[in-house]
Amino acid sequence: MQYSEIMVRYGELSTKGKNRKDFIRQLGRNVRHSLHEFEGLDIRAQYDRLHVALNGNDSTKVIERLKGVFGIENFSPVIKVEKDFEAVKKTALEMIQAQYQPGMTFKINTRRQDHQFEYDTNQINDKLGGHILRNVPGIDVKMKNPDITLRVEVRLNGIFLSSETIPGAGGLPVGTGGKATMMLSGGIDSPVAAYLGMKRGVKLDMVHFFSPPYTSEQALAKAKELTSKIAGYAGSINFIQVPFTKVQETIKEKVPEGYLMTIQRRMMLKITAAITVARGDKGVFTGESLGQVASQTLESMMAINDVTTLPVLRPLVSMDKTEIIKIAEKIDTYDLSIMPFEDCCTIFTPPAPKTRPDLEKTRNFEKLIDVDGLMQEALDGIEVTVIRPGENFMNQQEDVFAELL
C-alpha cells in the first residue's frame, strides 16, 4: 500500500518527567540524521508522537531504518485520506483485507482531534466496524487483544488510518545519556558493546587503532563499515583512527614477551583516555567480557585500568560468547566482524601472555618505553571521519583493488 506517513510512539523516554522535551528533541534529531539519505521527508517530533511524512518515499526502506533508532517503542505506517467518510470506509476496508487471514478478529480505535467532524468517536467506530463486517466474510469483532486494530485519527488536516504496529528498538535516544568513547576493534564484541551503550542513550565516538603495514586497508575499512552499521542507532558517529604501529613495535622490542599484551592494552587505554578528555567525553567503553581471553581476567583489567581515573565501562562483562554472537547477528554486524582481516589486537600476540599480570611488574616494564613520546606521536596522527548509516567502505576497497589490477 502507498502510505503517506509513519507515526512513531515514544518508549521509555515518555516517563522522563521534566526532561521529556529534551528527550523528544534529541530523538527528532536522531531520526533526521538516520534518515538523511531520503529526500523530501517531513519529520515533526511532537509531545505525544513523532510523525514522518513520506512525501513519496519508499515506506519499506524508511521503516527498516526506523527499526534501529533508540527511543522508539513502536510505530505505524499511516494512510491519510480527506475528510470524506466514503473515502475513509474504502481505505479502511482495503487495509483490513490486506492483512486478514481466516479466523482473525479486529476492532476500530478512533481518536478525534477535530470535534467539528460530522461523526463522533462512537459513530465512527460503529460505521467502520459494520462496513468491514459486511465486506470481509468470516471476520469477527474482539475488543480485547484482537488480531488487527484499525486506528483512526481525525485531525484538523485530514483523517489518518493505520492497522499495523511495528516494534521499535526501545531504549533511550542516543545523546541523552552523555558522551563517551568506544574502543572499537574489528571483532565481534566491541560493536555489540557499542550497541548496548547507545541503547542507554550514550553518544559514542569510535576510537580504532590501526598498525600499517601489519594491518591492511581492508581491516580499516571493515572497522569503518562496522561503525556505519552501528550509526543507524545514532544518526552519525565520529570515527577516530589512531596510528599505532610505532607503539606496538617499541613494546615488542623492549617489553618482556609475557607482558606485551598488558602494556599494549595500557597504551591503548592511555591514548583513548587522552582523546576522551580532549573531546569532552565522560568515559570509555570497551568490548571486554570477563574470562573470554587472557587479557580479560580481573587481574588484567586491574592492571590496564590503572592508567586512568575515567570510568571504564564494559557492557559485556557478564555475557558469554553465545549471548554476544546472538546480539551481533541481531544488529547485523556478525558476518562483517568475522571477516579475516587482522586488527592491531591480534598482531604480535605472544604464545603465552600473562593471564594474571602483577601490577607492580606491569608499571616497571612500562618504564622501558617512552610513554609520553609515543602517546603524543599517536595523538598527532589521528584522523576523524563522520560516518553515517548505509555507507559502504568494504566495496570502496574492492573498487580500489580492482583498479590496481
UniProtKB/TrEMBL annotation:
GO cellular component: cytosol
GO molecular function, one term: tRNA-uracil-4 sulfurtransferase activity
Substrates-to-products reaction catalysed: [ThiS sulfur-carrier protein]-C-terminal Gly-Gly-AMP + S-sulfanyl-L-cysteinyl-[cysteine desulfurase] + AH2 = [ThiS sulfur-carrier protein]-C-terminal-Gly-aminoethanethioate + L-cysteinyl-[cysteine desulfurase] + A + AMP + 2 H(+); [ThiI sulfur-carrier protein]-S-sulfanyl-L-cysteine + a uridine in tRNA + 2 reduced [2Fe-2S]-[ferredoxin] + ATP + H(+) = [ThiI sulfur-carrier protein]-L-cysteine + a 4-thiouridine in tRNA + 2 oxidized [2Fe-2S]-[ferredoxin] + AMP + diphosphate
Enzyme Commission numbers on file: 2.8.1.4
InterPro entries: Rossmann-like_a/b/a_fold, ThiI_AANH, ThiI_fer, ThiI_N, THUMP_dom, THUMP_ThiI, tRNA_STrfase, tRNA_sulfurtransferase_ThiI
Keyword Secreted found: no
Location(s) in or outside the cell: Cytoplasm
Transmembrane segments: none
Pathway: Cofactor biosynthesis; thiamine diphosphate biosynthesis
Domain THUMP, first and last residues per copy: 60-165
GO BP terms in the entry: thiamine biosynthetic process; thiamine diphosphate biosynthetic process; thiazole biosynthetic process; tRNA 4-thiouridine biosynthesis
Keywords: ATP-binding, Cytoplasm, Nucleotide-binding, RNA-binding, Thiamine biosynthesis, Transferase, tRNA-binding
Function in brief: Catalyzes the ATP-dependent transfer of a sulfur to tRNA to produce 4-thiouridine in position 8 of tRNAs, which functions as a near-UV photosensor. Also catalyzes the transfer of sulfur to the sulfur carrier protein ThiS, forming ThiS-thiocarboxylate. This is a step in the synthesis of thiazole, in the thiamine biosynthesis pathway. The sulfur is donated as persulfide by IscS.
HAMAP family found in the cross-reference section: ThiI (MF_00021)
PANTHER family in alphabetical order: TRNA SULFURTRANSFERASE
Family (UniProt): Belongs to the ThiI family.
Record's protein name: Probable tRNA sulfurtransferase
